[in-house]
Design brief:
346 residues; alpha/beta; Rossmann fold; 5-stranded parallel sheet; 4-stranded parallel sheet; 15 helices; 13 strands
Length: 346
């Protein structure tokens, strides 16, 4: 494929989303990446939050954390280029210790992943002995290693129910935990709050979930007022919220689900207008795939960490073999059990 052919493909998909001058420039970079991908026997995985010019040109697979974890587990390629954030690339390495895993940005962190440490999990286990630990996949490898099972936003409730336990520790997203607690009919406490930090949870308190107080710096900013304003301006709008949003926001929405669930909802729905309460590049990506449906453009929240991944950086990643992701073997083996259990539940 030539750069001209790539431009025509990208124009057909993104002509109403990305300026033409940008498409021409990006098409040349995408063409170089595809050539290098073949030379290095690489597979490119891209999260739904990638910029449209990247999302709609070079990936072999796109999706949410669960979908990309499955793809990483199944690949036979020598190199995995993960266009996402660091914890996602670590998960790919956990599943593929013998393959080279590259993250195109040197840092590409995550506010949620950085809200908890492995030591925090160990302390919670001591405070609540025998209670199984469910850890959101949006965590680093050492935290996964201290967990019994991982989950994604799409299968969190199913994972909690699969444990058949009277009590569950659910880490680290406060709002996902609250939403799961409501969905599964459980009472949740947060012993990490200052008022209970020293004493722990009272023994006579009725609770079935123990949460943490981490949050996504993007999803925490959406409000019920955002939903009300959208409905006032666009009475026919269908509002979709990510489960990392506050429970009141999720309750005010028409649908709540993972990024892949949102993608499927828009594809299968007959509605004409949507508001996505999630990272805003995803709205552009869905708009490109559904030209007959309107994404309401009141969202201006980009994940600064996802935004670090560009086509230019992805090209340099393949050219210069950077940045290589490594996970210490003792941590990888323990984390693998939790990740494989998550994938098995689906």
């Amino acid at each position: 494929m030539s750069a001209v052919e790539m431009y025509e493909i990208m124009k057909a998909r993104l002509g109403h989303v990305v300026p033409d001058v940008e498409l021409r420039y990006k098409a040349g970079i995408a063409d170089q990446i595809l050539r290098l991908k073949q030379e290095r026997n690489a597979v490119i995985l891209a999260h739904n939050y990638m910029e449209p010019a990247l999302y709609h040109s070079i990936p072999d697979f796109t999706g949410d954390s669960l979908e990309l974890s499955r793809r990483a587990a199944q690949t036979d390629k020598d190199v995995i280029v993960f266009c996402g954030v660091r914890f996602m690339a670590e998960t790919a390495k956990i599943l593929n210790p013998g393959r080279t895993v590259l993250l195109p940005a040197e840092r590409a962190g995550c506010s949620l992943a950085e809200s908890i440490t492995a030591e925090d999990v160990r302390r919670l286990r001591l405070e609540f002995p025998g209670v199984p630990v469910v850890t959101y996949v949006n965590t680093y490898a050492d935290v996964k290693a201290e967990s019994d099972i991982c989950c994604t936003s799409g299968n969190a409730a199913a994972v909690v129910e699969s444990l058949h336990s009277d009590r569950v520790i659910f880490l680290p997203d406060e709002f996902l935990a609250r939403n799961v607690a409501r969905e599964t009919g459980r009472r949740i406490i947060f012993p990490t709050r200052k008022s209970r930090r020293k004493a722990g949870a009272p023994e006579n308190l009725d609770y079935q979930m123990i949460g943490w107080t981490g949050s996504c710096e993007v999803h925490v900013r959406f409000t019920v007022e955002d939903v009300k304003n959208a409905r006032r301006q666009f009475p026919d709008v269908v509002v979709l919220a990510h489960p990392e949003c506050k429970p009141a926001v999720v309750k005010a929405a028409d649908f709540a689900g993972s990024t892949m669930a949102m993608v499927r909802y828009v594809q299968q729905s007959s509605a004409k207008r949507y508001l996505l309460l999630t990272e805003c590049s995803m709205g552009d990506n869905i708009a490109a795939e559904n030209p007959g449906k309107e994404m309401v453009r009141i969202c201006s929240l980009r994940c600064p960490h996802m935004n670090e991944i560009t086509l230019e950086d992805t090209l340099n990643s393949l050219k210069l073999n950077r940045y290589v992701i490594e996970v210490p073997e003792d941590i990888r083996v323990r984390a693998l059990r939790a990740v494989e259990r998550m994938i098995a539940i689906g």
